[in-house]
Amino acid sequence: MARAKNTVAKSGRRHPLATAALVLVGLLVTGAAYVGFTQSSATAEDDWYSYVQTEEARLAGEKLFGANCATCHGANAQGTPDGPSLIGVGAASVNFQVGTGRMPLAFSGPQGMVKPKQFDEKQTIELAAFVASLAPGPGLPDSRYLQGDGDVAAGGTLFRINCAMCHNVAAAGGALTEGKFAPSLMGVGATHVYEAMVTGPQNMPVFNDANITPQQKADIISYLKYIEDKPAVGGLTLGSIGPVAEGLFIWVIGLGMIVALTVWVTAKSN
Q1: Helix (H, G, I), strand (E, B) or coil at 90
Q2: b or e along 212-236 (b: 16 or more beta carbons within 10 Å of the residue's beta carbon)?
Q3: pLDDT given for residue 235 in this prediction
Q4: 123, 140, 157 — which closes off a domain?
Q5: Residues 53-85: b if buried by 16+ CB within 10 A, e if exposed
Q6: Considering the entire predicted model, what is its pTM?
Q7: pLDDT by residue (tens digit) across 65-120?
Q8: How many independent structural domains does the chain possess?
């Protein structure tokens, strides 16, 4: 009887490699899920890249344009006193402006503001297809430049040379003249960052492929993704807007603490 019990006890023991096997299985499942997710995202981008070139998308976009955009931009997108011509702006410009909610405009002002989108992704691509059919212009970016796997160091150098004077070194945005501003780039999707570079929306200059190559644009996108994800090792960022916020913090908090300490020490001595 005792031998039988010992046999059962031994057979019930966990194998020494069981924990390692479980960890390995978990890593494999996690890796497979991640690969599946990234591939599905790339596939969706490739699908839109193909769909925007179809006649089906163009016809659907023409109907949407006539019902929602022609009042300001004209029936043939030729422009009116209330809106500029869209002939030659390309699919990228439409996808950026409509996809970020800037268009249709909520009100007339120094520049279009980001707001909740009025059109879903498919409708946005269809509008882009119609406008792109009117004249050649920048198309939707190739998904291979949007993966965030570029050269982060090179992207940081390019960003500091070409973008930081408006968007801030930390891509937190900054004020411009006449009530305009360069928006923060934190949380902006790779597609819209690329499209902004090739179309130059509002106050932004155009960085075509002769100025910054597609791979260099991919490097900039990788840099933006890096600074968005990395922790703030220096502590509280104060909005990352530079010495004004930092100086104000020192004057209000630092000087305030010194005054409070002086009052406390004086009160204790009395």
Answers
A1: helix
A2: beeebbbbbbbbbbebeeeeeeeee
A3: 61
A4: 140
A5: eeeebbebbbebbeebbbebbbeebeeeeebee
A6: 0.72
A7: 999 999 999 999 999 999 999 999 999 999 999 999 999 988 888 888 999 999 99
A8: 2
The domain of 72 spans: 29-140
Return d(Cα 242, Cα 180) in angstroms, integer. Answer: 19
The answer to whether residues 151 and 201 belong to one domain is: yes
Please, which pLDDT band fits residue 16 given cuts at 50, 70 and 90? low
Q: How far apart are the first and last CA of the chain?
A: 87
Please tell me the distance from the alpha carbon of residue 206 to that of residue 182, in angstroms, as a whole number. 14
Residue 257 inside a domain? The answer is no
Q: Cα 177 to the chain's mean position, in Å? A: 24
Mean pLDDT of 53-62: 94
Query: pLDDT tens across 114-145, in order?
Result: 999 999 999 999 999 999 999 999 999 999 99
Q: What token pair was written down for 248?
A: 């104000």
Instruction: Classify the C-alpha dihedral 123-34-42-40 as positive or negative.
Output: negative
Question: At 181, phi and psi to the nearest 5?
Answer: -155, 155
Same domain, 73 and 111: yes
Nearest CA to 171 among 99, 220, 114?
Answer: 220
Question: Tokens standing for 105?
Answer: 């405009």
pLDDT at 34 over 60: no
